[in-house]
Amino acid sequence: MTLTDASRELRSTRRLMWLTVIWAFGLLISGLAPYDRATWWMEVAPVLIVLPILWATRRQGLTDLALALICAHGLVLMLGGAYTYARVPLGFQVQEWLDLARNPYDRFGHMFQGLTPAIVFRELLVRYVGMKPGTLTSLLVVACCLAISASYELIEFGAAMALGQGADEFLGTQGDPWDTQWDMLMCLMGAVGGLVLLSHLHDRQMQSLNRR
What we know:
There is one protein chain. By secondary structure, the protein is an all-alpha fold. The protein has one domain (3-211). The protein has helices at residues 3-31, 37-56, 64-83, 89-98, 105-129, 135-163, 168-171, 179-211. Helix 1 packs parallel to helix 3, helix 5 (105-129) crosses helix 6 (135-163) and helix 5 packs parallel to helix 8 (179-211). The longest helix is centred in the last third of the chain and has 33 residues, at 179-211. It is globular and about 50 Å long.
């Protein structure tokens, strides 16, 4: 291992330690007395899956932007798991401010479902696959994000079939027959918005990381 590799791994380890502490605190708080324990487990499952993967791949590391979005996305999932997405207090406040017909927190969560994977997929394609930033890469990233969203909707479908009414809290449709379509639209908006607004910052961070 070269000095550069060792320095990169040390920096990545420090950032992952902070992320682990933040997530551990979030899991502790959200898991103390969740509205529905089974729903909490299903909502925080991605956090429990992603964290070991991040530690296993820490030598490669991710940009600060990608890691920050992953951290924030995990907290969004934990909050949704604690209250269920249809009952998050912050969502009720936004619902009242904007005079909405439903709690919009789940829409916010699905926006993150597009935003975070968009930056992560973009980084993987550029740094490790060798694709150049541009239209083709962006289209592939958006397609990957929509594939994740569709897969998640199939998981929700499976939960509904297996658990029946017991899956209502996990589904969080709030009586909206178009909930699945709205979820995928919010994912699309999150992915496209992230690529439009954050690509330049992301490029600078990837270039800086490659120089180390």
